[in-house]
Amino acid sequence: ITYKRINGTVVKIPWRKAVQDYVSYKLKDFGISEFDTLVINTKVLAQPLHIPTNEEIQHEEAERFVVPFLGDCALCMNPQDARDNNVAMMKCGHFYHKLCIVNWIARDLLCPLCEAVLEEQQNGT
């Protein structure tokens, strides 16, 4: 920062480097509260690192498709395998054998693990 005081003297104040922070100067601290000319030279440094907002983080988490470790079906207690076409994933994230969950849904029951309304997850959506 270069400035010219009213009395004609020219003063330079060096910029302080700050990675992602804005650097501010109180004019009175540097005795430049009264000046004739103030010149601030700037240049673009490297693009700043993008820090995601809470909304962006929540959106990413909502789109994330996580397949938990499969164990036994909570309805029939028999083993299940994620590669098996007879296993259905519900929107709540729980897995059941298709035959087991179809019968459960037909009785208008909620998820036995989290009590969510049961809907089958279709192709990661």
TrEMBL record:
Residues 73-115 form the RING-type domain. Pathway: Protein modification; protein ubiquitination. GO terms for molecular function: zinc ion binding. The keyword Metal-binding applies. Keywords: Metal-binding, Ubl conjugation pathway, Zinc, Zinc-finger. InterPro entries: Znf_RING, Znf_RING/FYVE/PHD, Znf_RING_H2. It comes from the Eukaryota. Signal peptide: none annotated. PANTHER family: RING ZINC FINGER PROTEIN-RELATED. This is RING-type domain-containing protein. It comes from Streblomastix strix. The lineage of its organism: Eukaryota, Metamonada, Preaxostyla, Oxymonadida, Streblomastigidae.
